[in-house]
C-alpha cells in the first residue's frame, strides 16, 4: 500500500494503472488485521479513491466503549495524518466528521514539534486535505520530501523526476501553442475588458489531466474555458441588458448569418466562437466529432444562465437563495467544464459519459455547487465585479437575516455535502468512474484557486511562482 501511495504521490501512477488497480482489488478482498492506524487509514483512502468500497466501520477498532477515539492515537502523528486524509473520502450518512475533528485538533497541537517532512505534510493537509489537493502540485512538494521517508527508493524518485521533466517539455509546447492561439483571438475580438488569463486556464486543464495521452484534451478544454471566461466578462462587465439578450439569442441560433443582430463590438467574438468549435471538431477523429455537439449544448445552456444573471442585475432583483443556487451552480462554469473536459478524452468520453455530464446530476451538479460557493465566498471578501449580480452568500444573508460569518459557515457545510456527493459517485458509478475521477480533479482545482478566500485566477500574481515551477523549471536529477 505504501508503494502504491508513493507512486501516486510522485505523479507516476499513470505508468502503472493496471498494476495499481489489480493490487488494490486484492487488498480489498484479503483479510486485513492490523492495529496500525496509518495502515487502516491508508487502505481506506486508497480503496475509496479508486472507487472500491470499504466500510467506515474499519475505524471502530480505534474507539473506546463510549464510541470516542482512543487517546493513545495522539502519540501517532503519522497515523493521525492518514486518518485525517482518509476521513475526507466520506459519503452521506457516514459519521466521519468526528474523525476529522479529532485528527485536526491533535495535529494542530503537535505540528510545530514534528520533524521534516511530516511537519510539512501535516501543514499542507490542514490547509487542504489530500483528497482535495491538486495532485500535480502535491507531486512538486513530495519529490523534495521523498528522500527523507523511511521507504525511500532512489530509483523510484529518479523515475519520477525524469517523467516530470519529459512531460514538462510537452506542457511547454502546449502553452506556447495555446498562447499563440489566444493572442490572435484576443487581438481579433478586441475586447480589452476581458481577463487575459490563458496560462491560468491551461493550469486548470493541466490539473484535470497532465498525462501525455491527454494533450489534445488539454488544448480543447483550455480553448473552451477561454471562450466562457470571455463570455462571462461580456455579460458581467460590459453588455447592456439588450445586448446580453441579443448575444444569447445568437448563441442559441448558432449560425453565422445571425451575426447581424449583434452590436458591432460583439460580432468578431461571436464568429470566433463558431470558428473555435469547428476547429475543435476538426481536431477529433470522424467517429468522435459528435462529442463537440455536447460542448455546444452546454455552452448554450451556460449562456442562458449568464443572461438570467444579467437580468437579475439590471432589474435589481435579489433572488431567493434557492433560486440563486439553482441558477448560479450552472453559471459557475463547473458543469460546462465537466462536459468540455470529456470532449478530447477518447474512449473515456463515451456517449453514456457525455449524457451523464450534460444532465448535470450527482457529481457534476456538486462540482457546480462547490465552484459557485467557493467563488462567492471569495467575492464577498474582495467585492464583486462592477456588474455582478447578488451572489449566493449575499442572498443567504438577506433571506435568513444572518451575519456574513454565519452565512459562510453554513455555506461551507453545503460545500462539504457536495464533496460527499462526489465521493459517492466515485464509489457507485462503475462504468463512469474515469469520468467522475476527472470531475473530482477539476473540482479540486478550486481549492487551489479559491482556497484562501483569494481569487488567484482573476488576480493571478500569486500563481506566477507555481506556474514557473510546474512548467518552466525542470526538476534537478
Automatic annotation (TrEMBL):
PANTHER family (UniProt xref): OS04G0344100 PROTEIN-RELATED (PTHR31225), OS04G0345400 PROTEIN (PTHR31225:SF92)
GO biological process: diterpenoid biosynthetic process
Domain of life: Eukaryota
Coiled coil: none
Protein name: Terpene synthase
InterPro entries: Isoprenoid_synthase_dom_sf (IPR008949), Terpene_cyclase-like_1_C (IPR034741), Terpene_cyclase_plant_C1 (IPR044814), Terpene_synth_N (IPR001906), Terpene_synth_N_sf (IPR036965), Terpene_synthase-like (IPR050148), Terpene_synthase_metal-bd (IPR005630), Terpenoid_cyclase/PrenylTrfase (IPR008930)
A GO term, aspect molecular function: magnesium ion binding
Key word Cell inner membrane present: no
Domain Terpene synthase metal-binding residues, every copy: 183-421
Keywords annotated in UniProt: Metal-binding
CDD domains per record: Terpene_cyclase_plant_C1
Amino acid at each position: 500500500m505504501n508503494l502504491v501511495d508513493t507512486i501516486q504521490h510522485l505523479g507516476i501512477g499513470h505508468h502503472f494503472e493496471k498494476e495499481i488497480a489489480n493490487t488494490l482489488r486484492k487488498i480489498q478482498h484479503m483479510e486485513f488485521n492490523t492495529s496500525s492506524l496509518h495502515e487502516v487509514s491508508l487502505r481506506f483512502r486508497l480503496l475509496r479513491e479508486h472507487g472500491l468500497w470499504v466500510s467506515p466501520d474499519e475505524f471502530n477498532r480505534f474507539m473506546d466503549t463510549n464510541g470516542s477515539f482512543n487517546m493513545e492515537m495522539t502519540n501517532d502523528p503519522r497515523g493521525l495524518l492518514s486518518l485525517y486524509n482518509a476521513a475526507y473520502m466520506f459519503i452521506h450518512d457516514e459519521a466521519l466528521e468526528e474523525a476529522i475533528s479529532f485528527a485536526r485538533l491533535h495535529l494542530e497541537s503537535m505540528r510545530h514539534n514534528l520533524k521534516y517532512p511530516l511537519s510539512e505534510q501535516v501543514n499542507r493537509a490542514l490547509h487542504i486535505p489530500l483528497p482535495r489537493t491538486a495532485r500535480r502540485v502535491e507531486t512538486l512538494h513530495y519529490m523534495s520530501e521523498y528522500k527523507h521517508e523511511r521507504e525511500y527508493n532512489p530509483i523510484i524518485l529518479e523515475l519520477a523526476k525524469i517523467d516530470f521533466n519529459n512531460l514538462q517539455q510537452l506542457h511547454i509546447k502546449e502553452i506556447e501553442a495555446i498562447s499563440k492561439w489566444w493572442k490572435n483571438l484576443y487581438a481579433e475580438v478586441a475586447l480589452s475588458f476581458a481577463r487575459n488569463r490563458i496560462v491560468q486556464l491551461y493550469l486548470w486543464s493541466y490539473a484535470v489531466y497532465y498525462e501525455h495521452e491527454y494533450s489534445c484534451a488539454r488544448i480543447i478544454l483550455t480553448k473552451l474555458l477561454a471562450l466562457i471566461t470571455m463570455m462571462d466578462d461580456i455579460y458581467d462587465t460590459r453588455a447592456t441588458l439588450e445586448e446580453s439578450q441579443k448575444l444569447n439569442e445568437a448563441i442559441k441560433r448558432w449560425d453565422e448569418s445571425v451575426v447581424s443582430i449583434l452590436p458591432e463590438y460583439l460580432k468578431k467574438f461571436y464568429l470566433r466562437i463558431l470558428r473555435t468549435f469547428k476547429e475543435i471538431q476538426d481536431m477529433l477523429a470522424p467517429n468522435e466529432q459528435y462529442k463537440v455537439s455536447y460542448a455546444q449544448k452546454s455552452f448554450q445552456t451556460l449562456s442562458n444562465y449568464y443572461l438570467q444573471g444579467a437580468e437579475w442585475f439590471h432589474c435589481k432583483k435579489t433572488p431567493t437563495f434557492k433560486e440563486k443556487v439553482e441558477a448560479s451552480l450552472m453559471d459557475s462554469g463547473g458543469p460546462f467544464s465537466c462536459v468540455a473536459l470529456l470532449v478530447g478524452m477518447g474512449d473515456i468520453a463515451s456517449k453514456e459519459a457525455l449524457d451523464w455530464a450534460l444532465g448535470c446530476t450527482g457529481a457534476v451538479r456538486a462540482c457546480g455547487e462547490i465552484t459557485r460557493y467557493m467563488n462567492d465566498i471569495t467575492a464577498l471578501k474582495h467585492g464583486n465585479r462592477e456588474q455582478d449580480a447578488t451572489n449566493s452568500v449575499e442572498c443567504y444573508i438577506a433571506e435568513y437575516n444572518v451575519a456574513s460569518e454565519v452565512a459562510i459557515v453554513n455555506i461551507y457545510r453545503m460545500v462539504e455535502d457536495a464533496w460527499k456527493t462526489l465521493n459517492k459517485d466515485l464509489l457507485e458509478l462503475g462504468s463512469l468512474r474515469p469520468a467522475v475521477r476527472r470531475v473530482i480533479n477539476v473540482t479540486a482545482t478550486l481549492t487551489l484557486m479559491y482556497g484562501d478566500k483569494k481569487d488567484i485566477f482573476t488576480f493571478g500574481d500569486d500563481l506566477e511562482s507555481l506556474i514557473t515551477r510546474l512548467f518552466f523549471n525542470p526538476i534537478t536529477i
